[in-house]
Amino acid sequence: MQYLVTNNFHRKFNIENMLKVIRIKFFLILVLILSTSTSTRILGQETETSPWSRFGMGLAIPTLSAPQLMMGGVSAPILDGYVINPDQPASAAGSVTTMLQASLHGTNTDMTEGDSTATVNSGSLGSISLVIKKPGGKTAYMMGITPYSAKGYSVSRSFNDSLNNTIGNIVETYSGAGGTAKSYLGISHVFKGKKWIPAGNLDSVHVANRALFLGAQVSMLFGEVTSTGRLDFEDVTSLDTRTRTSMRHRSLGGLFGAQAYQLLWAKYDQKRNFKGSATLYVGATYSPESLLYTDYEKSVETVQLLSSIETVIDTASYINKLDAEGRIPAKFSAGGALVYEHANGSRFLISGEYMQEDWESISDSFEEDILDGDVAWAKASRTSLGITVVPGSGGASYKAGFALDAYPITYNGSQLSGWRASAGMTIPLEGSRSTSRLHLGVEMGHRGLESDNGTVLEGTLEESLLKIQIGVTLAPFFKNLWLTPKLYD
Fold first, then answer.
1. CATH number for the domain that contains residue 351
2. Gap between the Cα atoms of 106 and 143, Å rounded
3. How many CB atoms lie within 10 A of CB 225?
4. Count of domains forming the chain
5. What pLDDT, on a 0 to 100 scale, did the predictor assign at position 13?
6. How far is residue 425 from each of residues 9, 136, 392, measured CA to CA in Å?
7. Chain centroid to CA 160: how far?
8. What is the pLDDT of the chain when averaged over all its residues?
9. Tell me: the pLDDT tens digits for 264-308?
10. Any domain includes 21
11. Is position 2 within any domain?
């Protein structure tokens, strides 16, 4: 009896100590993520340099998560227990264990407008995501921070004043910086069903043949974007004009997701050895419309260079408005995937997804117009296709994808659109003795204004993109059973 009492005491003591350690680790990780989120420039600035980022909150970019980007951005139906899918909150419950995921992204952009060309290189940190899940559990928690939009450009042009030859050349210069990011916290749960599958004529195997995954996230969009426009006159007696705009955005939103799979067929031999199967996956996400608050500041000044120092001579106008209201439209995505698996461990997946976000529907909701020039809001959409091939058990997986993008702005009646083609591989880090993965990917694409017949408008800005991405998904050493209490010392 004394042994039982002592053993139970030690067991309770160890569990309580372990829970305290888990709480401390969870708190430190949460503090790390929240402290990272206080600096928008880490994730927003220089994420993707483009003159098109001049308008609105900046250029909308796909979620910079390497495993999904390599498949053209398909995320709603994808359920992979060894990587994190930040755009699908339901997927966390399908993770095999606790995981941390991050990536780095580099972009080379070749820009062409008429006879003018330019090349810009940029790079940034991608999404940082964390899933906390007990191995074999049905509930998981996820959190992280991801870039949402980016503003980074510097363009200029020079021309002569045909009405007044005494002014000389006039130089227009436009530049912008900053971006927005989104931090999130979510939970998901899985409901599974099982079925007996025949194994030969006299035996059977009990397998999970269907499951439903449900998840939700609460998110905070935040960040600052700045723009500066200058009009410089060659005549030193003329005053130059400078227009500066700053917008600090914030929005509390949510994301709901659902995934399900159904085993179509599975084969086992008489010795209950797996021979092959086919599974159908479907998934969808929905983000409801949310309020956007903006601290808007704009100044128009006349300036002059005095002893190489730019001095403000007069302020023509100044606007400073706090908590100007606007709206972020509802967004939904839906897709499906078909997976074939073989006894030798090989796997083939083909998937597709459609996403839509109608910014045109909320164009009249902004107290302050955050667009500029001959630009209007439009309906954004993305159509993606992706495949994954795993040649054999325990090896690398190879991925490829293609996407057609329609961005949420139109310029002079033509919508900004583009395409992206991607490929890459995910390699298990076998030396880590865990389920950790390394992701290597490349993406190329094109962006420009589309005409009525589907071709790019002649004489307008076109961009050719080449991106390289390196990511890692880290999981604990296989003997570190996180969140699993010890039964004995």
1. 2.40.160.60
2. 24
3. 28
4. 1
5. 40
6. 49, 27, 14
7. 44
8. 83
9. 999 998 888 889 999 999 999 999 999 999 999 999 988 887 767
10. no
11. no
- Nearest by Cα to 183 from 223, 154, 225: 223
Of 49-63, 235-249, 409-423, 436-450, give the lowest mean pLDDT range. Answer: 49-63
Model confidence, pTM: 0.84
Q: Is residue 481 part of a domain?
A: no
Answer yes or no: is 130 within a domain: yes
Residue 140 sits in which domain range? 39-474
